[in-house]
From TrEMBL:
Residues 865-887, 924-968 are annotated as: Disordered. It comes from Lymnaea stagnalis. Disulfide bonds join C734-C791. It is found in: Cell membrane; Postsynaptic cell membrane; Postsynaptic density. This is Glutamate [NMDA] receptor subunit 1. Residues 1-20 form the signal peptide. SUPFAM superfamilies: Periplasmic binding protein-like I, Periplasmic binding protein-like II, Voltage-gated potassium channels. It is a multi-pass membrane protein. L-glutamate binds at P504, T506, R511, D722. The chain crosses the membrane at residues 550-568, 620-646, 809-830.
Length: 968
């Protein structure tokens, strides 16, 4: 009664101080208690204090809500609508949680907006039934917003949704499914139960067969107690399990297990704060609305059949209102539901007491989840977050053959795989590509050594099988429908035929949309493999530093200089030619052969022992020629070195921007592996669309081995693939090389199913291997050092001479040897022929010498006889002196017989008959001639006569001593 008197006085004073032109807005309220009525009136009073300048005055009209919906509706008609209320604030009946459904129906019929402050039933979100209802509290179904953020925060993407088969359960499931689809969270499965049952064991048992171990639970308090009891009996509340329950199932439940998570609406039961926020929203709305347009009066009771014309306008303005209130940011959805409400994340600790571990909602212009994960207690009273899925330690690995990452060899007969260097591990693997028959192999390589290390670190067992179709994985259309499916290893992982892909699988956006990748175990890019363009080395390759014209001029210069040297030394008075004729020197003359030898010797830098020019003029030319030879030799040496560098085998193309790739022709063919990440890269890049279309029209390669083999054969000019594999092939086969720089950089990762519980652990294991240097050891062992040792030199090493480059030099030496051998036979034959001639000439010369000796002897004898005859004649003349006039007859006769005269009056001595005639006496005139020569004898034109070192030739026919006139 006192409150009523105080309120009446306040209204009287206020009315006396208020301008009569102010518009009055009456706000009705159906509240739970008198205290709430007082708080409501205080809120309206505060609203009037702030609205004095806006010429608006707010009145308050309140009633207590009856628990009986019929009486509650009658009170609305009789006590509130009669006071011309523009809006109604609705709470709940005292001591009950009944919803203000009667208030919503009654006011909604007359288009009077109702602002609920405690009704959280999802049924009020149906605008077809509750057309004028909005509320400052969110419905229970909005807990799904918090659940989704919790799952994302905890990295759980497979859940089991357990809900009641009523409207509240269906509403929260529907909202969760809508939100979860955005974050790729899947229900496996959604289990519905009937409320009010006494035992739910049969409902819970199928959950034990599911993979997921995260349960989202929506239920009332009564049903929650029963389900908790049965779940604990089935062992579903212990370790490796996780429960996130609704607000109804979290509070007022005595047997909630340890480690369960729940949500609690902040200020959800604080009716005073919600009254203040509701009044503020109404005041703000009417202040803005009346300032822009006129608002008609609402109905005055339930007797009127007409609806309020401006009721919908007021409702729309209320829904659009946004403000900061006592319960946080107050805003509404199109359905009138509260948005951005603040929730508290609750956790049952080891003492079975709920404690706050986080917040979710709008605060300081930020909407999100803030949680202290380290303070969480999980089922089983443990502090280690469950993986969220049933963990099987026996994993299935799918891979494929790709050197050097995975190398496949036949399984030995004893069934034990043994690693072959540089491999450290070898594992048995099956191949199912040959129908249903499984062939056993041994897998080793880069990825297998890495897998062994990861399994030791993460603690799991594994079996390996090769990809059924031998492909990495790409989209392909189904034969029946237009829907695309993944093939290769990707398809097997998507169909849950494998748990991990351990292979050089490129991380790209298309694959990352459907599977999870670990951190890259190797960073790489794309490169182009081509065959080296080895220049053909001819036998004359050592001549290539100079052009043919220069070689011809050099050869011509040698002979011209030799000729000029010979002429200068020949005609110079100080040359060797003149000095050779003098008696005071023994030097040979510089003939043309010696000059040629000197000219070649200077050019080729060989020692000159003899035949050098003597005259000053020839020596000047010799010095100039030596300078010319030095320049030519130095230039040849420098150009030869440069030629060897340029003669290095080069790549056929310069890189990805090469015109032959961008504008291909029919003769130049390049390709990549069909359905690979490289093909996806070219398909995705607009600037490479021309190259992609050209590769589509070329031969299709399903494996890298087939393409590399065609590169070796020359049937394919370029192969575009991952750089580690191409570097390995180029290092192993020195006829192959990579062209240009890397492009399309990416990483190689291990593939896992989406939201796999192993993703985090395997990723951390990969990071630890990077930090410890294990990955670097794998690179050195498989890709860098050991593979490069097969090639004699790297591409950056300086060029060196080989047999192919200098084969012409060796052939020239061999030609010189053969020419020398042939010339020695010619010289021997010539010398033999010349020796026979000289022997014949020597015989003729000896015969002539004997003949000349005989002639000399006969001449000497003749002279002697002549002298004797003269002496005798002188003696005879003396005897004819008077003292001795008679001559004996016998002597005269003897002398007469002894001396005869020939027809030429030449005296011939005739030997006496009593003795044998001497050689001189027996020789006739014809006997003085030389013996006749042989039939085939040809007299030489000149006869050599030797005198010291000088050899001169004389014609015997010119010798006076050989003249026939000198013959006796």
């Amino acid at each position: 009664m006192k409150l009523f008197i105080i309120w009446s006085v306040f209204v009287l004073v206020y009315c006396l101080g208020t301008n009569a032109t102010d518009q009055v807005i009456t706000i009705g309220a159906s509240l739970s208690s008198e205290k709430m009525e007082y708080e409501f009136k205080q809120a309206v009073n505060n609203l009037n204090k702030n609205a004095i300048r806006n010429h608006i005055r707010f009145n308050a009209a309140t009633i207590l809500m009856d628990s009986n919906p019929i009486r509650s509706a009658l009170d609305i008609c009789d006590k509130l609508l009669a006071q011309h209320v523009f809006t109604v604030v609705a709470s709940h009946p005292n001591s009950t949680d009944h919803s203000p459904i009667s208030v919503s129906y009654t006011c909604g019929y007359y288009k009077i907006p109702v602002v609920g402050i405690s009704a959280r039933d999802s049924a009020f979100s149906d605008t077809n039934v509750h057309t004028m209802f909005l509320r400052t509290v969110p419905p229970y179904s909005h807990q799904a917003d918090v659940w989704v953020q919790l799952l994302v925060k905890l990295n759980w993407h497979r859940v089991i949704f357990l809900y009641s088969a009523d409207e509240e359960g269906r509403a929260i499931l529907s909202r969760f499914q809508t939100l979860a689809e955005e974050f790729n969270i899947k229900n496996e499965p959604s289990i519905k139960y009937a409320p009010g049952e006494k035992n739910y064991s049969t409902v819970l048992e199928p959950i034990l067969k599911c993979t997921s171990r995260v349960i989202l639970f929506s239920a009332s308090s009564e049903d929650a107690s029963t389900i908790y009891r049965d779940a604990e009996t089935l062992g579903m509340t212990g370790e490796e399990w996780a429960w996130i329950v609704s607000e109804q199932a979290f509070f007022d439940v005595y047997n909630i297990p340890i480690g369960f998570l729940g949500v609690h609406l902040v200020n959800g039961t604080n009716e005073v704060n919600h009254i203040k926020d509701a009044v503020e929203v109404i005041g703000d709305t009417f202040t803005k609305l009346i300032g822009n347009e006129n608002i008609s009066n609402p109905p005055t009771g339930c007797n009127e059949s007409s609806q309020w014309d401006d009721g919908q306008k007021v409702y729309n303005a209320l829904v659009k209102t946004k403000m900061e209130g006592e319960t946080g940011q107050v805003s509404f959805s199109e359905k009138g539901d509260r948005l951005n409400a603040m929730y508290e994340i609750m956790n049952i600790n080891g003492n079975r007491r709920p404690m706050s571990v986080g917040l979710f909602g709008h605060k300081e212009e930020a909407l999100g989840l803030r949680m202290m994960e380290n303070n969480l207690t999980w089922p089983g009273n443990v502090h280690v977050k469950p993986k969220g899925e049933k963990i099987s330690r026996n994993l299935t690995i799918v891979t494929l053959k790709e050197k050097p990452f995975v190398e496949v060899t036949p399984l030995p007969k004893d069934g034990h795989c043994r690693p072959v260097a540089p491999a450290k591990h070898a594992f048995p693997c099956k191949n199912g590509t040959h129908g249903t028959k499984l062939l056993n192999y041994c897998c080793m390589g880069y990825c297998m050594d890495m897998l062994a290390k990861i399994s030791e670190d993460v603690l799991f067992n594994f079996t390996i099988h090769l990809s059924k179709d031998g492909l990495f994985g790409s989209f392909e259309r189904h034969n029946v429908s237009d829907k695309k499916f993944w093939n290769g290893m990707m398809g097997e992982l998507m169909r849950q035929e494998a748990d991990l892909i351990v292979a050089p699988l490129t991380i790209n956006p298309e694959r990352a949309n459907d599977i999870d990748f670990t951190k890259p175990f190797k960073y790489q890019g794309l490169n182009i493999l081509v065959r080296k363009t080895q220049k053909d080395s001819s036998l004359a390759s050592f001549l290539q530093p100079f052009q043919d014209t220069l070689w011809i001029l050099v050869g011509l210069s040698v002979h011209v200089v030799a000729l000029v040297l010979y002429l200068l030394d020949r005609f110079s008075p100080f040359g060797r030619f003149k000095l050779a004729k003098s008696d005071d020197t023994e030097e040979d003359a510089l003939n043309l052969s010696s000059a040629m030898w000197f000219s070649w010797g200077v050019l080729l830098n060989s020692g000159i022992g003899e035949g050098t020019p003597r005259s000053f003029s020839a020596r000047v030319l010799g010095m100039v020629w030596a300078g010319f030879a030095m320049i030519i030799v130095a230039s040849y040496t420098a150009n030869l070195a440069a030629f060897l560098v340029l003669d290095r085998p080069e790549a056929l193309i310069s890189g990805i921007d090469d015109p032959r790739l961008r504008n291909p022709n029919e003769k130049f063919k390049y390709a990549t592996v069909k359905g690979s990440a490289v093909e996806m890269y070219f398909k995705r890049q607009v600037e490479l669309s021309t190259m992609y279309r050209n590769m589509e029209n070329q031969k299709k390669y399903l494996t890298a081995e087939a393409a590399i083999e065609d590169i070796r054969k020359g049937e394919l000019q370029a192969f575009i693939w991952d750089s580690p594999r191409l570097e390995y092939e180029a290092a192993s086969d020195c006829d192959l090389t990579t062209a240009g720089d890397l492009f399309g950089r990416s990483g190689l990762g291990i593939g896992l199913p989406k939201n796999s519980p192993w993703t985090h652990d395997v990723s951390m294991a990969v990071l630890r291997m990077h930090e410890s240097g294990f990955m670097e050891q794998l690179d050195n062992r498989w890709i860098l050092v050991d593979s490069k040792s097969n090639c004699p030199e790297s591409n950056s090493a300086p060029a060196t001479l080989g047999l192919t480059n200098m084969a012409g030099v060796f052939m020239m030496v061999a030609g010189g040897i053969v020419a020398g051998v042939l010339l020695i036979f010619i010289e021997i034959a010539y010398k033999r022929h010349r020796g026979l001639k000289e022997k014949e000439l020597e015989l003729a010369r000896n015969a002539a010498d004997r003949w000349r000796g005989n002639i000399e002897k006969r001449r000497t004898l003749r002279q002697t006889l002549q002298k004797q005859k003269e002496d005798q004649m002188r003696a005879n003349s003396i005897h004819k002196q008077p003292t001795s006039k008679s001559v004996p007859l016998v002597t005269a006769t003897a002398n007469t017989n002894a001396t005869k005269f020939n027809s030429n009056n030449a005296k011939t001595v005739v030997p006496p008959p009593y003795r044998r005639p001497s050689l001189l006496e027996a020789t006739r005139e014809s006997d003085c001639l030389p013996p006749p020569p042989p039939m085939d004898f040809r007299p030489p034109g000149y006869v050599p006569a030797r005198s010291g070192r000088t050899v001169t030739w004389h014609n015997p026919s010119h010798n006076p001593s050989h003249s026939p006139d000198n013959l006796v």
